[in-house]
Design brief:
globular, alpha+beta, Pnp Oxidase, Chain A
Amino acid sequence: MAQAKKIEQEPKFWDRLFASPGIVGIITTVDAEGKVNAASFGTIVRVVHNPVQIAFTTNTTGKDTYNNIKATGQFVVNLPSFERRILEQVCIVGLPFAPGVNELEKAGLTATPSRVVKPPRIQECPRSFECEVVWTKEWLNRVTIVGNVVAAAVDSDCVDDQGFVVWDTLKAVTYCGAPYLNLPPHRHMFVAAYETIAVETPYAGPEVEAYNSLVANLKI
């Protein structure tokens, strides 16, 4: 099959070219008084395997999520499926509601108690990860937050008996990013991310054995 010609992209297109930037999810927090806040994020990533750590970035000003995390050191990452209804609810949660408003109630989502931390899980999201903050890094008007996973829950039909994801049931979803939102008519663009392919390494050499030995010793 003929290879497509490479096209150099101008800097103004780099951000949209990187779609999808990360997993989309709803992060729940509580303030010092226990009031629940929820916010949508499109660039949630796992950054460490063992211990499992999850990172995301948010604004440092006017953002309840960051203020709550500074106050409590806890958050819950709730990951939706590639289904229109829950993604519509993700969009509602992402609206600029006033401080103190419970976004879950506005979106018609169900808060359920977490096992370890104070912020709630979201019943409609098949995966939830309870996290305690490890470190934060402020830069410009942004802050990157990394948390250790201290508990996790999943819908029973979305994993097998070894804990591996059943992808076509889970229906993982990613977000294209802000550049796609900025294109009229200002709709959020999501991408299904649950088709899988298992690939072996077609290479003969000592590096293969070294790699296999490394993988065998990983505590994951």
